[in-house]
Amino acid sequence: MYIRIAMAAVTCLAAAAAAPGAAAGETVVTGPRHGDLLAVADAFDRAQLTQDRAALERMVDDGLVFIQSSGKRAGKQVFIDGWTTPGDSYDPITLVDRVVIRLGPDAFLVSASTTLSGISGGKRFSSSFRFTDTFRRVGGEWRAVHIQVTRTAS
Fold first, then answer.
1. How far apart are the C-alpha atoms of 68 and 56, rounded to whole Å?
2. How many other β-carbons are positioned within 10 Å of the β-carbon of residue 52?
3. Rounded Cα gap, residues 21 and 1, in angstroms
4. Within 13 A of 152's CA, how many CA atoms are on the CB side?
5. What contacts 72, CB < 8 A, 6 or more positions away?
6. HSE of 61 in the Cβ direction (CA atoms, 13 Å)?
7. Is the entire prediction scored with pTM above 0.85?
8. Count of helices and strands (H, E) across the chain
9. Number of Cβ atoms within 10 Å of the Cβ of 87
């Protein structure tokens, strides 16, 4: 169970390289009007960490491509189930080297690295990773359409 959660956790946080000059913990945003994009990314992360299944169902596209830290491809239900396993809980996180890149009027990506820790299956865990979440505006709403997670050394 820990591995499933760690893989899901890695997904929610971002894999583009930081822009030149970005300090640890600083968010680098490229493109105009980025405040709305940060709000979407923050709400998505919050929904994962608080295990808000209803919010995740709304925010994750039915066709989600989820590349787990193992390299295996999964979809929406695997992603959501990994975050909402009964009895699991997550500690607050700090995003490092977060980058937000607007890809056009209806798409953007967020990338960062973090360490996710908490309790899974009654045991403490900690996993460091870098992730990229790609969002697309679908029917006027932002949806996560592609998530990739890569484990890193702690």
1. 17
2. 17
3. 38
4. 18
5. none
6. 19
7. no
8. 4, 8
9. 9
138/113 Cα distance (integer angstroms): 27
How far apart are alpha carbons 100 and 136 in whole angstroms?
13
The position carrying tokens 């956790």 is 9
Contact 88, 5 (CB under 8 A): yes
pLDDT for 67-119, tens place per residue?
A: 999 999 999 999 999 999 999 999 999 999 999 999 999 999 999 999 999 99
Euclidean distance between CA atoms 115 and 125, whole angstroms: 10
Cβ contacts of 120 within 8 Å, gap of 6 or more: 1, 2, 5, 6, 85, 88
Find tokens 């959660």 and name the residue.
5
Q: What digits encode the pLDDT tens for the residues 79-88?
A: 999 999 999 9
| Residue tagged 């583009």 (tokens) | 16
